[in-house]
Specification:
- Keywords: Kinase, Transferase.
- Homotetramer.
- Belongs to the polyphosphate kinase 2 (PPK2) family. Class I subfamily.
- The protein is an alpha/beta fold.
- It has 12 helices and 6 strands.
- α3 packs parallel to α12 and α4 packs across α12.
- The N and C termini lie far apart (about 45 Å).
- The model has no long low-confidence stretch (mean pLDDT about 90).
Length: about 280
């Protein structure tokens, strides 16, 4: 361990690393954490640059975060947005529909949340609730599900034709890792609010979720609106690489001066195709 004298006299990070090396102190975890924080900071700075460019160009960008419970969607959105200007950015996480909304066209409540010119909207779950969660949990009937699956490619084609850039992420997590995160939530009084009866059923109905997820991919992965799979068993890596992917999709001013690579790791970020190796099968 480091002594108080070490910490007092070491003025730079490298000096502490040298001391650790001399004394065979294992600081690999600390070094990984520091690398993550440095990388995150650089990418968040690029997100600020991207946001300013989007605002200036009056572009409309919607980024969808989908995936099983505890896959890390909310944590990733937090890292994406924590340094962005709230005047041209929104996070949308809709609660269950009201009785009035249940009688409306399904997409209507989401249309109201679409980005305005110059704005980025982050969807913490989206209209794709009807593709997976609702049929698995019995929150919609078969006709509603079938109608949605027919309409959603047409709906997204209209968004594409109108100039809205939609990025669709599926955060992929293994069954074992999901269970581990559920257990951690139950043990943490600050996170127990995140756990719900629906979460419990996520493990029990794993195969049913897989079936509907695959149906969703096969019918809604389209050229102008593809699904991007993010392997999320490592939360920090998922956050970093999903941010890289978004940045890679725009040719914004100053991009070439970025202090880190903006090309996502192909072992973590994968465009969906039918025979892709997934961790949440």
């Amino acid at each position: 361990m480091f002594t108080r004298e070490d910490l007092t006299h070491a003025k730079k990070r490298k000096q502490l690393i040298d001391i650790a090396s001399q004394r065979n102190i294992d600081i690999s975890k600390i070094q990984r954490r520091l690398r993550y924080e440095d990388e995150l900071r650089a990418l968040q700075a690029e997100m600020v640059n991207l946001q300013q460019w989007i605002a200036k160009k009056k572009l409309r960008v919607a980024i969808i975060f989908e995936g099983r419970d505890a896959a890390g969607k909310g944590g990733s959105i937090k890292r994406f947005t924590e340094h962005l200007n709230p005047r041209s950015m929104r996070i949308v996480a809709l609660s269950k529909p009201t009785e009035e909304e249940k009688g409306q066209w399904y997409f209507r409540r989401y249309i109201k949340e679409l980005p305005n010119p110059g704005e980025i909207v982050f969807f913490d779950r989206s209209w794709y609730n009807r593709a997976v969660v609702e049929p698995v949990m019995g929150f919609c009937n078969k006709n509603q599900y079938k109608k949605f699956m027919v309409q959603v490619p047409e709906f997204e084609h209209m968004l594409y034709e109108d100039g809205i850039k939609v990025i669709k992420f599926w955060f992929s997590i293994s069954k074992e890792e999901q269970k581990k995160r559920f257990d951690a939530r139950l043990e943490n009084p600050l996170k127990i609010w995140k756990f719900s009866p629906v979460d419990m059923k996520g493990q029990q109905l794993w195969k049913k979720y897989t079936h509907y997820k695959e149906q969703m991919f096969s019918k809604t992965h389209i050229t102008f609106s593809p699904w991007i799979i993010v392997k999320t068993n490592d939360k920090k890596t998922a956050r970093i690489e999903s941010m890289r992917y978004v940045l890679s999709q725009f040719d914004y001013v100053g991009k070439s001066q970025a202090k880190t690579t903006l090309l996502p790791d192909p072992n973590v970020i994968v465009r969906y195709y039918r025979y892709i190796e997934q961790i949440d099968i």
